[in-house]
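User: Some background: our group keeps a shared notebook of sequences we're curious about, and every so often someone picks one and asks for a predicted structure to add to the entry. Today it's my turn. The entry only has the sequence so far, pasted here. Could you supply the structure so I can complete it?
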Amino acid sequence: MRAVLTRVSRASVTVDGQVVGRIGTGFLILLGVGQQDTEAQCVKLADKLTSLRIFDDENDKMNLSLTDVGGEILVISQFTLYGSCRKGRRPEYLAAARPEVAIPLYERFVQLCRDKGFHVETGIFGADMQVESLNSGPVTLVVDTDQL
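Assistant: Of course. Here's the predicted structure to add to the notebook entry:
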């Protein structure tokens, strides 16, 4: 699994002109699922991301976690994180999981974050979504379970 995590002051996602997810301070997570991904990787990624200490403390040092700041999470499905630009000018997405694999792992990731006590909002899997965020810092991390 791959995630692009951005620390945000606020973020939202809109589908067909309707806001379907909105958060305040927290994480905007773009989540991609690969063909070979497993539930064990999903658990590992949820544990890692929800425990990162990337919020500033009183000394302006990134030392506080999502729990410490009462943060929220917005998770957006993003198969394009598995895009390859090696050949030609149009990316290919062969490494991305098909929906029958990706949807259950995406939903499991969301549930794992909720089970940890976080307020989690989502987009709509497979929809054309408009995502807005006010990035804080900016602080943006790319996390791949193959490297954990």
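Suggested note for the entry: Residues 21 and 34 are 24 Å apart (CA to CA). The longest helix spans residues 99-115.
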